[in-house]
Amino acid sequence: MIINLLINGKLHAIEAPEEMPLLWAIRDIIGLTGTKFGCGVSQCGACSVLLDGQLIKSCSLPVSGADGKEILTIEGSSENLEFLRQAWSDGNVPQCGYCQSGQLIAATSLLDTTENPTDNEIDAVMSANICRCGTYTRIKKAIHKAVTLKNEVI
Ligand code: FES
């Protein structure tokens, strides 16, 4: 099946089995390996991407479900993602780093919908993303810092 994916602003027409998880299309066919495989069953968030602006677990969506849709991965860019990248860097958030692309995409989705999230609002969205190194406190601080950075620019 030919599937059209608009990933980070670039159109990719790929041939793939319709049931292939979107994650494998992104990683193995298109070659964007920043999005990670963790559990494969929607439990860890390592594979998080935005699909038409919605936070999804790409391990659990058949690639056919993304046909014609817009996808943002960690290799892409958006206003909130860039403020978050800066805050992540300033706060030395990652430890092993494996989950961090998923964390950044989830945080982007949060800031896309909630301008200045409270700790509870951060927990509500970010609790779906597991970090085995336990960087949760730094992640929370970095999300607040990204809001501060954004407000300084605006
Ligand atoms: Fe998709 Fe864990 S790899 S949620």
Automatic annotation (TrEMBL):
Single Gene Ontology MF annotation: oxidoreductase activity
Keyword Coiled coil: no
Residues annotated as domain 2Fe-2S ferredoxin-type: 1-77
Domain of life: Bacteria
CDD domains attached to this UniProt entry: fer2
Keywords: 2Fe-2S, Iron, Iron-sulfur, Metal-binding
Signal peptide segment: none
Gene3D superfamilies according to UniProt: 3.10.20.30, [2Fe-2S]-binding domain
Name of the featured protein: Probable oxidoreductase
Species, as recorded: Polaribacter irgensii 23-P
